[in-house]
Amino acid sequence: MVPVSVGQAGNVSGLLLSLILSEQVQNRTDSVDFGPSQLWCHRFAGLRSYATPHSQFFAPSEGIMLPAGSYNNKVAFITGGGTGLGRAMTGVLSQLGAQCVIASRKLEVLQQTATEISSQTGNKVHAVQCDVRDPQAVSRCVDQMVELTGLPDVIINNAAGNFICPSERLSANGWKSITDIVLNGTAFVTLELGKRLIQNQKGASFLAITTIYAESGSGFVVPSASAKAGVEALYKSLAAEWGRYGHRFNIIQPGPIRTKGAFSRLDPTGTFEKSMIGRIPTGRLGKPAELANLAAYLSSDYASWMSGAVIRFDGGEYVSMAGEFNELRKVTDDQWKMLETMIRSTKGS
Ligand SMILES: CC/C=C\C/C=C\CC/C=C/C=C/C(=O)SCCNC(=O)CCNC(=O)[C@H](O)C(C)(C)COP(=O)(O)OP(=O)(O)OC[C@H]1O[C@@H](n2cnc3c(N)ncnc32)[C@H](O)[C@@H]1OP(=O)(O)O
Ligand SMILES: NC(=O)C1=CN([C@@H]2O[C@H](COP(=O)(O)OP(=O)(O)OC[C@H]3O[C@@H](n4cnc5c(N)ncnc54)[C@H](OP(=O)(O)O)[C@@H]3O)[C@@H](O)[C@H]2O)C=CC1
């Protein structure tokens, strides 16, 4: 680990940094306990990753949590399973004994992931091309899965699209592109599989990956925020309606976890990561393996009494952003002494 100074980035991010974040970062530098000297940068595989010193209290455990064989004789269907978090979840489920089917648009990417994971775990991973925006394609994908593995025990709706964009620059097609993948795609997959499972009297666990801002909303990712909120309403509603058919529905809201797909579209210059880490109480990003362990637990028989749950998984970022006075973390001991003296010396109203 090497300490880095804020502002070491390249031209574009340097410009953005000074224009957008200068006040925030400068404040930190001057007066708070999270200045550049305490901002650490790990360098590995060509990627930067910032963390605070106190993140050492929260070192990630990336080993597989559930007992070996927990998914023997189970079939798991994961949308967007070829990359990022979907790939991590597929790896863990496969390692635990599941036969996995991964689906998305890019067949070559899926095939490569399937080959790599199955050669590591010894369990079959099937790649099926599917654009979840197209209900007919979803139906064909499920036909193909039925041929390969039969209907699944576990469905993970993980596929998504996103990009940062001021809403006044957003075209109708930009809106449609994101909401079609996230909300309609999740609905098409869930309805198609749900109906077939019901016909076959087979129970299943459904999991949706949303995000922390599904609850709060967020500027600059408005189609994603709207669609993810819709996914949460869909899953909470079906948890109530389809329990009688043996179906559970749960939701994970991840905070920031480094993946190429997310970071290239949400932080293309790498400028925002540092300020984001400053507001995460555990002082670091999440790891795909941590998310995968939680998903494996929620989708397993160990969680058979969990349905309708919304699990925030963000190192504390959401509550840290929400609390009115949380910025007072930045006040030093000397400043507290002064503030306390001022407050105690105030008499009357
Ligand atoms: C440090 C911060 C980093 C991260 C974490 C932070 C916080 C935690 C919360 C994070 C939540 C993350 C949520 C996610 O969902 S991340 C997942 C990201 N992964 C992907 O997006 C993968 C798939 N994405 C894509 O395939 C594409 O990006 C796209 C655009 C979604 C779909 O591709 P498609 O080929 O179908 O679409 P296009 O034809 O290219 O575009 C359609 C339409 O949209 C307009 N568009 C595209 N990009 C932009 C842009 N950047 N700005 C504005 N508009 C855009 C495009 O122009 C088209 O519209 P028209 O021109 O036709 O009007
Ligand atoms: N990483 C993070 O910090 C966070 C991620 N999330 C959520 O986690 C999930 C995974 O994201 P992440 O792994 O980071 O990003 P990725 O970009 O790696 O994952 C998105 C996946 O969705 C697939 N996909 C996109 N469009 C379609 C489509 N039309 N049909 C089928 N599949 C599609 C992509 O595959 P292909 O291109 O082959 O279609 C890709 O595999 C998403 O739901 C995201 O919203 C939530 C909060 C934070």
Automatic annotation (TrEMBL):
The protein's superkingdom reads: Eukaryota
Q: Which UniProt keywords apply?
A: NADP, Oxidoreductase
Look up the signal peptide feature and give its range: none
GO terms of molecular function: 2,4-dienoyl-CoA reductase (NADPH) activity
> Which InterPro entries did the record assign?
NAD(P)-bd_dom_sf (IPR036291), SDR_fam (IPR002347)
Enzyme Commission designation:
1.3.1.124
Biological processes, Gene Ontology terms: fatty acid beta-oxidation
Q: Where are the transmembrane segments?
A: none
Q: Which reaction does it catalyse?
A: (2E,4E)-hexadienoyl-CoA + NADPH + H(+) = (3E)-hexenoyl-CoA + NADP(+); a (2E,4E)-dienoyl-CoA + NADPH + H(+) = a 4,5-saturated-(3E)-enoyl-CoA + NADP(+); a (2E,4Z)-dienoyl-CoA + NADPH + H(+) = a 4,5-saturated-(3E)-enoyl-CoA + NADP(+)
* Enzymatic class: oxidoreductase
| GO CC terms of this entry | mitochondrion
PANTHER family linked to this entry: 2,4-DIENOYL-COA REDUCTASE [(3E)-ENOYL-COA-PRODUCING], MITOCHONDRIAL, SHORT-CHAIN DEHYDROGENASE/REDUCTASE
Entry's family note: Belongs to the short-chain dehydrogenases/reductases (SDR) family. 2,4-dienoyl-CoA reductase subfamily.
Q: What the protein does?
A: Auxiliary enzyme of beta-oxidation. It participates in the metabolism of unsaturated fatty enoyl-CoA esters having double bonds in both even- and odd-numbered positions in mitochondria. Catalyzes the NADP-dependent reduction of 2,4-dienoyl-CoA to yield trans-3-enoyl-CoA.
Record's protein name: 2,4-dienoyl-CoA reductase [(3E)-enoyl-CoA-producing], mitochondrial
